[in-house]
Structures are given as structure tokens and as C-alpha cells.
Specification:
There is one protein chain. The protein is α/β, with parallel strands linked by helices and 270 residues long. Helix content is 42%, strand content 22%. α6 (157-168) crosses α10 (229-247). The two termini are 34 Å apart. The mean pLDDT is 93.
Length: 270
């Protein structure tokens, strides 16, 4: 079953959004990775509230976004309207409620397809990948995007949460694991597919153990939604104990983090 983000629409930007300058840099990096021209047509699957889309839309590109969450896209529609008022120009944005596993477009409809943090949220990620490649005009790329945390920072609360959930409930694929799985599958069946990874944008930030624990407690993340309430409470108790034993009075102490925006560029060479 695919995961719908309607429940997260109100807080999504506050918990997943980028600072304005980082968002702009990511938009520019995606345009460069796509080799876009003035007439390039972008499609984003799982467009959500537009944290990836809006900087590209603001650059004037034709941008189509699909998502199964109407509430998330309502947020993006408001942002597009705000952009039009601010600039006096009509954005070339088309937003459709649709399933990325069955895209309502003809083959070769787009010059670049963007997928950010979505393949782990659908029932059949391989089918979603095949659909993305189907609607591309060769040799246009599929840009599979995500965030990575680098450096020598202490282990994160979310990493420990995933370990606990795996022990109590079973594995829940994350974005990186799902991407590795689908790429391994398609590379095994299509030797013409090429993959190139880049990390064009980096930024520093800080978090705290208390803030990360509170995010889990409030079930802000999709890896908490699939758990039955009793299982969630059991895992949360274990996580809270781990945080207390590991950090004690340092729960509110800032922890440095370095974020990287990862782009896996996927295309057919022939």
C-alpha cells in the first residue's frame, strides 16, 4: 500500500523544508543535472508541497507535478499563486492528483523526471521507476534525489529508532534502501541504463536529541505511521530509554550536522 501524506500537509514544510538559499541551490543543481534548455519539460513524481518543485518553477521552466495527496498539492498551488503575484508572471505549472505507479501520460512526454524521497512510499517501487522511465524522452534523465547526513556526528535518534523498529516489528525500507533496490533491479534487466551520482549542495545545521525524540513522539515521520499503536508505544519507550541513558542532561545540547543533497542521474545510453 502506498503512503498518502495528507496527514502531514500542515507541518510538512516546517519539518522537511530547506532554507531559501539551499532550496535555490538545489533547484539550480537539478536544472544543471537535467541539461535543461528553455523548452525542457519537467515532471516530478510525488511533488508534495513543492519544496523541490518551486525553485525550478520560479526559474520559468514548464513543470508538471503529480501526487496522491490532494492536501499537499493544495499547499503547492497556494505557493504557485503567491509566486505569480510576486513576479507578475504566470508560472508554467501543472498539478495533477495521480499515482506514480500508473502515470496518466503518454510515453516520451517529458525531458526530465524528478523523484525525491518517494520510492520507499509506494507499494511497487520498481513499477514506479519503470513508469518514470516510460514517460521520459530519450536521452532525458530520471533524477532520483534525497538528503544524506555526513561527517562524524553522533548517531542520530532516527537511526536508533529504525534499529528498534526492525527488532520489534520488522524492517521498514527507507529512501536510500528503496533506491538501491530499484536501481539494482533495473540494472540487472536493462544494460543500457546508466547511473551517475553527484552531491552538488551541502549545508550545515544543528539539531538536538530532544527535538529528534519529540519528532518521533509526535509521529511526524512516515516510518512511524505504519506501526500499530501498541507497537509504536513499545518502540517509543525503548527509544526514550536509549536517549536518556545515552545523553542524560545533554538532550538539549546542539548536535552539528552536515546535510548533502544527493542526485542519482539515471538514463538510457541507447
Amino acid at each position: 500500500m502506498s503512503i498518502n501524506f495528507d496527514r502531514a500537509a500542515e507541518y510538512y514544510d516546517a519539518t522537511r523544508g530547506y532554507p531559501p538559499e539551499i532550496a535555490a541551490a538545489i533547484g539550480a543543481a537539478l536544472v544543471a543535472a537535467a541539461g535543461a534548455t528553455a523548452t525542457s519539460r519537467f515532471l516530478e513524481i510525488g511533488v508534495g508541497t513543492g519544496r523541490i518543485a518551486l525553485p525550478v518553477i520560479a526559474l520559468g521552466y514548464h513543470y508538471t507535478g503529480v501526487d496522491i495527496s490532494a492536501q499537499m498539492m493544495d499547499r503547492l498551488r497556494q505557493k504557485v499563486e503567491d509566486l505569480e503575484r510576486e513576479t507578475g508572471k504566470t508560472p508554467q505549472a501543472v498539478l495533477l492528483q495521480a499515482d506514480m505507479q500508473a502515470l496518466p501520460f503518454a510515453a516520451h512526454s517529458f525531458d526530465a523526471v524528478i523523484a525525491a524521497h518517494v520510492f520507499h512510499l509506494v507499494a511497487d517501487p520498481v513499477k514506479a521507476l519503470q513508469e518514470a522511465l516510460r514517460v521520459l524522452t530519450p536521452p532525458g534523465p530520471l533524477l532520483i534525489c534525497g538528503d544524506a547526513t555526513t561527517g562524524q556526528e553522533p548517531i542520530s535518534v532516527n537511526e536508533t529508532w529504525r534499529t528498534i523498529v526492525r527488532e520489534v516489528y520488522g524492517p521498514i525500507p527507507n529512501s536510500s534502501e528503496s533506491i538501491d533496490y530499484i536501481l539494482k533491479d533495473i540494472l540487472a534487466h536493462d544494460p543500457a541504463v546508466q547511473v551517475l551520482e553527484s552531491r552538488p549542495v551541502r549545508w550545515d545545521y544543528a539539531t538536538t536529541v530532544a527535538a529528534e525524540l519529540d519528532g518521533v513522539r509526535k509521529r511526524l515521520w512516515s516510518n512511524t505511521w505504519v506501526l500499530p499503536d501498541a507497537v509504536f508505544e513499545q518502540c517509543l519507550d525503548r527509544l526514550t530509554t536509549w536517549c536518556t541513558n545515552t545523553y542524560g542532561s545533554q538532550m538539549d545540547h546542539p548536535l552539528p550536522r552536515t546535510g548533502e543533497f544527493v542526485i542519482r542521474k539515471v538514463w538510457r545510453s541507447t
